[in-house]
Structures are given as C-alpha cells and as structure tokens.
Amino acid sequence: MTAAVAVGAVLAGLAGVKALEARLPRIVVRAGILLFVLGPLAGLAYAMWTLWRESFEPVDLALLVVLSVVTGLGTSLGYHRLLTHRSFSTTPWLKGAFLAAGAMAVPSTPVDWAARHLEHHAHSDREGDPHSPADGFLHAHVGWMLAVSPAKRERYCARLMADPVVMLIDRTALLWLALGLAVPALVDGWRGLLWGGIVRIALHNQTMFAVNSVCHAFGSQEFSTGDESRNNWLVAVLAFGEGWHNNHHAFPSAAYHGMGRRPDATGLVIRGLERAGLAWDVRRPSDAAVARRRAAGRLSAR
Questions:
Q1: Is 220 helix (H, G, I), strand (E, B) or coil?
Q2: What one-character DSSP code corresponds to residue 255?
C-alpha cells in the first residue's frame, strides 16, 4: 500500500508538471520526462527481481497482456492511424474509446502526439524532424523528448482542435493515464500496479520508441521515400504492425502497413471493424500505386 501511495504521489507530480509545462523551468520538465521514461524501467527491473523471488500469479500475467494490447492498440490504431493519418472513419464512441486507450499508454495528449508525428513526416530525417536519427540513435529513441519543445498544434492539427470528441480526450488525457494505473491496482493491489501498470508502460515505451530509432537505422527499404525509414519485422511484431515503417512512409494514410501477408495486428483489427460495419472509408493504396513506388525504389537503388 505504501508503494502504491508513492506511485500515486509521483503520478500527481507528473500531472502537475504536464499541466504547468509552459510555466516551469525546462530542467523541471526534463526531470519529469526522465522520471516517466526511467521509472517504468526501474519498475521492470524490480518486477524481474520479485518474479525471481516469488511466484508469478496468473492474474498478473493477464493484466500485463490485456492492458498491453488495449493501450498498444490505443497508440497504434487510435493515436496513429485513426487520429493522425485518418486511415479510416468510425463512430464517435469508438473514436473516443480508442483515443482514451491511447491516453492510458503515453503521457501525451492526442493532439500533441499527432502534431509531433505530422512534423516528423514533414521533415523526416532532415532539419526540423523532432526525432531525427541524424542527431544520434539515442536522440531518436528518447533524447528528443528532453528538448521540451511545444507541439505545433495550430500548424499541424487545426482540424483536430475543432473535433469535440478529440478535444474531450485531449483535456482529460491525464485522467486516462491515471486510470491505466488505477485499474490494475484495484484488481491486484501493488502487484497489479507493478505488472499491469509500470511494467506495461516500460514495455510500451521501448517498443514505440523503437519505431523512431530502430526503424530508421535497421531493416529493409522496399520503397524509395527520401528518408531512412525501414521495415523491421521484430519491431512490427512487438509494436502492433508499426515496424513496417518504410511501407508507412511510402503510403502514410494506408490503414494496413504490413502489405501482403506480413503481420500487422492493428491492420487486422481495422479489417475486422470494417467487416463488422464499424469502420468505413478505409484507405488502401491501389496495386498500381504500390507497383509504381516499388519500381521507383528499385531504380533509385541502382
């Protein structure tokens, strides 16, 4: 219980830092960011230690897996493909649920997340890219967040700021993040908080950070995109299909990144929603467009 109270106090502190980000000294904001990045990793190490010493209950594994899937899809399907790239349309209720799941995963509002991602696409691997690997692998992975630069919401996301569903989740994002920690704690106390909250966030952070770093350094390039985006099958498996990053940069609005039979968990969920009548206007590049881009990639590689 003492540990849970401590975690709650830290979360409240982070919420305060986020709310007052524009008014606080940069060193304070950076400290808060580092705490969110390094704290879950410390929790992961502690979890491994307790697993070695004590039994691992099935409920802990269930919390870790279920909440990892919910929040992972919240980021990939909700924040990324639905919100940022408009890869498909759905009902307001489902949109709100997907965005809330995304807010449970990351300490960023949906509009800020979308603005930074669109800025990345606008300047990929060039000056102006917020997490360019040209500034170093570690910078692309996590260091870019310490720049504490405000998201360019008005420039990249004016349409989102006029959407009442998006702005509802945007204003309440910290509450959803807190809920993502409170639910596992209510189910299984400190152990639930550890595995379903802290460890889950650590794993989510590192797999999604890897899209920015690993997928701009290691893997294959099927299409010529003018940047270093790459397809990495391991990151694709761990990050719900986001590792098919070169495919994504070639066709940013495509709902299915895997193309063909490559595993893309998020794309499969979107297909399921479409068949159930809960998703429509699902964007797919034509076979001719894919063939043209693939041929252009082969020519540029010669």
A1: strand
A2: S
Q: Where are the domains of the chain?
A: 2-215
Contact 169, 94 (CB under 8 A): no
Going from the C-alpha of 71 to that of each of 19, 234, 263, the distances in angstroms are 22, 19, 19
Q: Are 112 and 153 in contact (CB under 8 A)?
A: yes
Task: Give the ranges where the chain is alpha helix by DSSP (H).
Answer: 2-19, 26-53, 58-73, 92-103, 110-122, 137-141, 153-156, 164-171, 173-192, 200-213, 233-238, 245-250, 265-275, 287-301
The burial class, CB within 10 Å (0-12 / 13-18 / 19+), for 48 is: exposed
State yes or no: pLDDT of 154 exceeds 50: yes
Residues forming beta bridges with residue 280, ordered by sequence position: 89
Beta bridge partner(s), residue 244: 231
pTM attached to this predicted model:
0.82
Measuring CA to CA, which residue among 116, 126, 81, 121 is closest to residue 99? 81
Cα-Cα-Cα-Cα dihedral sign, residues 160, 165, 166, 171: positive
Provide the residue count of the chain.
Answer: 302
Question: Using the 8-state DSSP alphabet, how is residue 41 labeled?
Answer: H
What confidence tens digit (pLDDT) does each residue in 193-252 have?
888 998 899 889 889 999 999 999 899 998 988 889 999 999 999 999 999 999 999 999
